[in-house]
Structures
1.
Amino acid sequence: MSDEKDATRIVSAGRRPEWTQGIVNPPVWRASTILYDLVAELRARGAGDTHHKLFYGRRGTPTQWSLAEALNELEPGAEGTLLYPSGVAAVTTALLAVLEPGDELLLVDSAYDPTRNFANGLLKRMGITTRYYDPLIGAGIAELCSERTRAIFLESPGSLTFEVQDIPAIVAVAKQRGITTMIDNTWATPLLLPTIALGVDYSILACTKYIVGHSDVMLGSVTAGPGQYGRLRSMTYQLGQHTSPDDAWLGARGLRTMAVRLRQHGAAALQIARWLETRPEVARVLHPALPGCPGHALFVRDFKGASGLFSFVLNGGDEAARAALIDGLAHFGIGFSWGGYESLALPIDPQRHRSATRWEAEGPVVRLQIGLEDPDDLIADLAAGLDRFAAARG
Ligand SMILES: *Cc1c(COP(=O)(O)O)cnc(C)c1O
């Protein structure tokens, strides 16, 4: 691993000459069948390790390998990275690679809802139990660990309520007991938080968000720490997980500009978060770079910066008043996902997705994805929205 800066590495990572033939953005290699000259060649290829060798389309082509290698190079110490057709597919495959019937999973209570659904659905059917834990538990996680605990799943900050977890403290407890750790690192990406270097075993990204960056591709990845790649690859092959080369190509294209985009998303979001804090219609802003956010000191200690997603709690008001705010916004779309160049506003109800902790708020909650528009225009738009909210609240 060279010691270039991330913004430099992200431009050249994964662009091996044998994969690009000199073309700047690695081109799309589409394939199902790969032809061999001789039977002996076909047998030899299949008998050996097919890693980074054309074998059969499901094992990928240089297009997918290039993006996977680029993501791997952003995580110092990583052993290998694999791509998935969505972020959820990345989460579920990582969990299946590690867990067996009879095991227990510790899952952070602020986790992305489809991750919870998988734990409560297929994992439960397989005889794997899940215990949810407080995102602020830190080293206290030791008290929840039992003989059956096989994995601890983190997501930091949580993508609705933005509590920051003490990753090193949890990793230390896990390592002592031989428990595997995995983190959904979609919010920070390896640029703002390289988690393999912090000792986490699997770093999971919904590449759909900041890697792709243009709201037009579904994509996921899992990066494995030392000694963790083999079982991940085995499970990925067993499940037939495959990512289209066209989608990987768009992912690689997005990745090249991610450092610049993240800087803009992060600066604009923080400016808007600070402005929202001054508004009487707003009870609280949930942004890990603001001192009031639970886990803020850990954010300052571990993260290199913030990305562009945060929430705020309104001061009183109901569902209709929140809708009055969101419906009239000119520059914020109403929709799921985030990480694209366009701003989004989403009504969220975090208390519905909790089981181990209570989450209470002074009013309805709105999550904002801050895009690449000029923040002054976004602030003017939100100011008008807060006026509509106040009028509707009465
Ligand atoms: C969107 C998201 C995912 C899932 O990604 P998809 O590509 O939409 O399947 C996982 N984790 C977090 C935190 C997300 O925001």
Note: The domain at 3-255 is CATH 3.40.640.10 (Aspartate Aminotransferase; domain 2).
2.
Amino acid sequence: MRNVKILHLQILFVFVHACFAQADFAPYFYDNGPYSNNGNLALFSLSEDTQVGTQIYCLNGTDPEGQEVRYGVSFDPGSKEYFRVDPKSGVITLVEKLDREKQDSIDVSISITDGRSKVTERVTIFVMDANDERPEFQNLPAMINVVETTESGSSIYKVEAVDRDAGSGGSVTFFLQMQQVSLFTIDRHSGVLRIKSGEMLDYEKTKTHFVTVIAKDGGGDYNGKEQFMSSSATLTVNVIDAQDTPPSFIGTPYFGYVYEISEEGSEIFTVVAEDGDVGKPNPIQYSFDGGDDGVFGINKTSGCIFLLTNPINLRREIFNIKVRASEVSPEGKLLDYGYTTVVIRVVDLNNNPPTFYGENGPQNMFELTIYEHPPEGEILRGLKITVNDSDQGANAKFNLRLIGPGRMLRVVPQTVLNEAQVTILVDDSAAMDYEKHQFLTYKLLAVEIDTPERFSATADIIIHLLDTNDNAPKFSLEYYIARIPENSPGGSNVVSVTAVDPDSGSWGEVKYSIYGSGADLFLIQPASGIIYTQPWASLDAEVRSKYNFYVKAEDAEGKYSLAEVFVTVLDLNDHPPAFNQNFLEKTMVIGAPVKIEAIDDDAEVPNNVIEYAIMNAEPDNNIFDINSDTGEIKLKSYIKSMAIIQNITKKRDHTWSLVVQARDRGQPSFSTTAVVKIGITEAIKSRFFSYFLGLRKRPGAVFGIFLTLVTFAITLTIFISTVIYWKSVKKTRVQPQGKIRKIMRRPLS
Ligand SMILES: *[C@@H]1O[C@H](CO)[C@@H](O)[C@H](O)[C@H]1NC(C)=O
Ligand SMILES: *[C@@H]1O[C@H](CO)[C@@H](O)[C@H](O)[C@H]1NC(C)=O
Ligand SMILES: CC(=O)N[C@H]1CO[C@H](CO)[C@@H](O)[C@@H]1O
């Protein structure tokens, strides 16, 4: 280009030289070399961001003759006229917007004229780059389809963009707008878009992602300032559904109700499930996964749950049925599935009374045989009783009661809900006595508590008791008192004792025996309990009148008890009263009694009680009284002196002869008589006085008196000893009567 210019100048020079030869030189532009003071636009360049209207240059030329010059610019025909020139000053103004990216050089012809000659030069102006272009996407916006199962980290697209600016203003880097940062990532240089590692697409969450990509250049000058340019465009990512989501149920939770009026086959509830892969859903098939107890069925296509049985047979109030919904592949294979639970409540109408059950179904009589006196608290395990009320809730609540004799048995539990094992316990062992009841009859009662109907049920409980040897023989009395007349022959019955043992069989057979110190004279028949005297024994009340000993009653196992036997030998009136002598002599002083005494050897009153009586008195029957109990004989009260006596007897003789009878009170009674001679004297003082006066004349009589006194003393001593002896014998016969002891052995239980 520059060579071309030079060539032009040479041509011009030659032409000018020729004209000059005609003495008019053409005007010309200053042109002082490449870099200074050019007036001809040589080497001029212009930045594309130069504003329209800017004075961009001043053409400078001159005319050798000094003529005024005019400037002009012109463009090739058809091309844009970017400049205008002021003809006088040569100032060039930009009049059209520049765009380097459309036209990076402008060819323009400049001219200078002095009025006669015109010089034209053709120059090229270079348009310089400014950062005025945005990066431009080559393949955005766009829409792509990505399967949701695409692995994380996979590249899904490559974004391309171009910035036509030169230099850094023409370089492009890529970014994603913030909201997509979580799921995608883009390589800033290559523009490769990836699913971020660790992330997955999920059709069920978002079916479409709009990924906004920003392309940004490296920055450059524009209007004197550095500026960055960017563009954004959107990549639409459609997520393609894969078969990855199980079916799910709609409208959960599910509750259904069965009424007792419902019939077999009634529809209870319908479940609905949908394939989670809603893009291309598979059909669903329903089934149970437990909890239906064979009571319900489900239509595998419609999901309708229906009743398979009569509701009366439902034993439960609540069913928790697990329902499975499986998706079915086009080939008919079961794929993914989901679960839900349907709660079905049986609404109860309390139609059912409580019922007792044995081992083989309903039962209203239960029997058991046990030994008497089972331990307290023992469970009667032989009774296998169940009670059930097949209603629900409060309708199935009832009490259990045991009604029957005493409080021997107890039932637990006392309150039942629905169903219970009935336990019967021994409460009073002692009362469960075979000897009292061979069997016990109880009524077991179940009565509903909270229902208006108060339905109830009863069952008979019959407990047969078996005997055990729980009793010792028991005597009819704690002690036995027997009386046997003395002199009874050997082998006489004394008394019969009885002991009873209520146990059955040999446990109830009683064997008697006697023992003790007083038993020697007696025998007992072991079987009958009859006590009799030994064959050789003779009883004498006067020798021993009381015997006591023990009698023992024993059963076959040796359980026994004792009783005491008291035997009294009854006295018979076998002894008459007896006086010491049948002839007695007594001296009676007037006013003082004399006493006679008879003795009866019988052991007991009245046999030994004596009554005295005067049977006859000589010479006069009428002057004595006798105390019938004591035997004291006194003169009748009116006889106060010898004179009265003599007035009766008419004699000087004062000796009386009395026949005195001693009679015992036995039955029959015995009596004895004695003759008593009584000499009556005056009062002692006068008698002794006269007597001792007389003795002075008769010394022989003094000796006689002495001898009489000695004899009397001896006689008296013997008499007193005898009396004392007999009294002591009588005393030993008196037995204590209040000392009876009770001896009873109770059997150990
Ligand atoms: C034109 O060039 C001449 C010579 O170099 C200079 O003296 C003069 O100032 C210039 N005129 C303009 C308007 O630049
Ligand atoms: C299940 O339900 C469908 C639709 O309601 C019905 O056509 C079909 O007969 C039912 N199947 C059975 C076994 O009841
Ligand atoms: C003392 C006394 O009683 N003397 C009497 C005796 O008897 C006669 C006749 O019977 C009486 O007259 C006495 O008085």
Note: Residues 28-128 form a domain with the Immunoglobulin-like fold (CATH 2.60.40.60).
